[in-house]
Amino acid sequence: MIRILIVDDHPAMRAGLSAVLRAEPGLVPLNAAASVSDLWPMLNRTKPDVVVLDYHLPGDDGLILCRRIKRQLAAPAVLLYSAYADASLMIPARLAGVDGLVSKAAPANELYDAIRRVARGERVLPPISRELLDAASAELAPDELPILGMTLEDTSVSDMAAALGIDTTEVAHRIDRMLKRLKVDIPAPRAAG
Amino acid sequence: MTSRWMALLLMTRLLAAGVGVLLTAVHRVTDHDPLLILGAVAFTVASLGAFAYVPRLQLSPSAWFVDCFAALALVAASEDWRSPFYVLMLTALILPSTGLSFRGALAWGMAFALAYFAIAVYTSLDAETLESAVRLETIATHLMVPLVVVLALAYATDVLERLRGERLRSERLAVESERQRIAWELHDSAKQRVHAAHLVLSALQNQVEGPQEQLVAHALSEMRAAGADMDTSVAELRMPLEGRSVERLLDERAAQLVPASEAQITVRGSVGELPAHVAAHVYRIGAEALTNAVRHSGARHVDVALARNGSTATVEVCDDGKGLPAIRRPGSNGLRSMRARADTIGADLSFGPGRDGRGTRVSLTFSTQPDERTSQP
Q1: Which helix (H) or strand (E) covers residue A51, if one does?
Q2: Sequential pLDDT tens for chain B (377 residues)
Q3: Helix (H) / strand (E) containing A178
Q4: Looking at the complex, does the CB of residue A83 fall below 8 Å from at least one CB of chain B?
């Protein structure tokens, strides 16, 4: 039985996801959070196995939120669920510690499969192409490139810190900075109303 | 804008000419009064006729100069700076003050006042005038009036111009923010619902068999198509063409596609100026064909050729990829939306194999001036 927490700002999506997951044997949707402030109490109370996280939350970046979730003790697997699951999201997703990436346009089967795999500890991310890596490297500062390389080779943060001769908080800080640089912009309305 | 000032010129000049002629007829002004009256009438009729029938003269500095010169000459011919045609002369300032920039208008008024002063000195400004305080004040007033007229008119024009600019700007901003709002709603609400419905329906796919499974597959493909339609509408709302040429837009689209593909893209030729809605449809059709060629055909080269021949224009997108699939990909609403767009502008859209039988050629032929029936967006 895989216990799942949903984070999505749109009610139709929360209801749809809950219904679809409930219908599948072996998957148990616990609760659905509409915002970051709802998320933390639910996360602490329910201790889910997998968090299905919307990439674009109002006022919050799904990737930064993912890093905060992954920093917890006994962190759940995080499946990023996005309408923008294109190539430009791959490297930032790896940096943020995302376990899987599924497009909102994908059929339910793909979603079930991805949830089962990330719950087993697998990673559901497409391979990163040379072009993507070159494009990301061009955006980053020279002292950030080793971190990118080690992240892609699944080096742990403490090993990175040891290899670079800095402490782990500094590594975490640099990863946050890299995520900001590689931020995938989603067009938003310029002014409300 | 100029028609308003032309009306002012017409009214004031006719009135001033009438008053001037009447004054000349009642009071004996010079030895050649009949000639003077004839001159004033001829000037009024000729100048108003010229400005009214050749509107481009209303904005021509040479025409203003001739007009001012003739008006000043009329005052000089009346042999006194207190001429009955003084007001008639002032009307020559209306077009330059409203047609020039604020500074330009002031300079013109200054030069005009100086020319008037020269005429005054030349005709009848004598020692007697300079000794009389009343007369001195009168000439000073006469010199100031052209400046006041120019200042008032130039200021009014300037304010009107700014008001118009401000109104255009706020209208544009309102349209822009409305567009952004609609795009956001489409994307953030409607599209999320489509995603949710697609997800829920796709969960059924494994649980039904036979004809029902086909029904579900059909509904799923329609939902994907709806999602793609929304993407196109959102793109159009976020990036209106704003008068840029089709070839430039396609070039920009090609530049966006290059980093994510192996294909080499060339865009050449031009379709020239097009009505805005025709340009919008032609661009979206071309961009869709280009995107398909780059993303799905596996082509090494994609060639976009634009051409115009009189009132007919063509856009051709050729690639050397694997050609059109015999059966349409599920959820490929691209071709259908291209057809719908082509129908909207009454264009011919054809798909076929490339020049030497390889790849795909998408060809769009359209009229640059579609008739009213089809041109309604």
Answers
A1: strand A50-54
A2: 567 888 999 999 999 999 999 988 888 777 888 888 999 999 999 999 999 898 888 888 999 999 999 999 988 888 888 888 889 899 999 999 998 888 999 999 999 999 998 988 888 767 777 777 788 888 889 899 999 999 999 999 999 989 999 999 999 899 888 888 888 888 888 888 999 999 999 998 888 888 888 899 888 888 877 776 677 677 778 777 767 888 998 998 888 888 767 788 999 999 988 887 788 788 888 988 888 888 777 788 899 999 998 889 999 999 888 777 654 443 344 676 677 678 777 889 988 887 777 888 999 999 988 654 444 44
A3: helix A168-181
A4: yes
Please list every residue in chain B whose beta carbon sits closer than 8 Å to the beta carbon of residue A23. Answer: 203
Would residue A191 count as lying in a domain?
A: no
Please answer whether residues B74 and B91 qualify as being in contact, where contact means their C-beta atoms are separated by less than 8 angstroms. Answer: no
Are residues A101 and A13 both part of a single domain? Answer: yes
Task: Answer yes or no: do A63 and A155 share one domain.
Answer: no
B115 — contact with chain A (CB < 8 Å)? no
* Amino acid found at A1: M
Nearest alpha carbon to residue B284 among B317, B328, B319: B317
Q: Which of A108, A135, A189 sits opposite B199 (nearest CB)?
A: A108
Q: Are residues A173 and A91 in the same domain?
A: no
A147 and A84 within one domain: no
Nearest chain B CA: its distance from A172 CA (Å): 30
**Contact between chains at A191 and B203 (C-beta distance less than 8 A):** no
Residue range(s) defining the domain that contains residue A161: 130-181
Q: ipTM of this predicted complex? A: 0.84
Instruction: Kindly state the helix (H) or strand (E) to which residue A33 belongs, with its residue range.
Output: strand A27-33
Nearest-Cα distance to chain A for B180, in Å, is: 5
| Residue A193 in domain | no
Nearest-CA distance from A65 to chain B in Å? 20
Whether A105 sits inside 8 A of B198 (CB atoms) is yes
Total structural domains in chain A?
2
| One domain, residues A147 and A79 | no
Spatial separation of the C-alpha atoms in residues B190 and B202, rounded to whole Å: 18
**Domains of chain B listed by start with CATH number:** 2-167 (no CATH), 242-375 (3.30.565.10)
**CB–CB of B199 and A111 under 8 A?**
yes
How far apart CA B112 and CA A33 sit, in angstroms, is 78
Burial of B130 (0-12, 13-18, 19+ CB in 10 A): exposed
Chain B residues whose beta carbon lies within 8 Å of the beta carbon of residue A105 = 195, 198, 224, 227
Note the pLDDT tens digit of each residue in A6-57: 999 889 999 999 999 999 999 999 989 988 888 889 988 989 999 999 888 7
Asked if residue A56 and residue A30 are part of one domain, the reply reads: yes
- Domain of A81, CATH number, reads 3.40.50.2300
Q: Could you tell me if B309 lies within 8 Å of chain A, comparing CB atoms?
A: no
Residues A84, A139, single domain; the answer is no
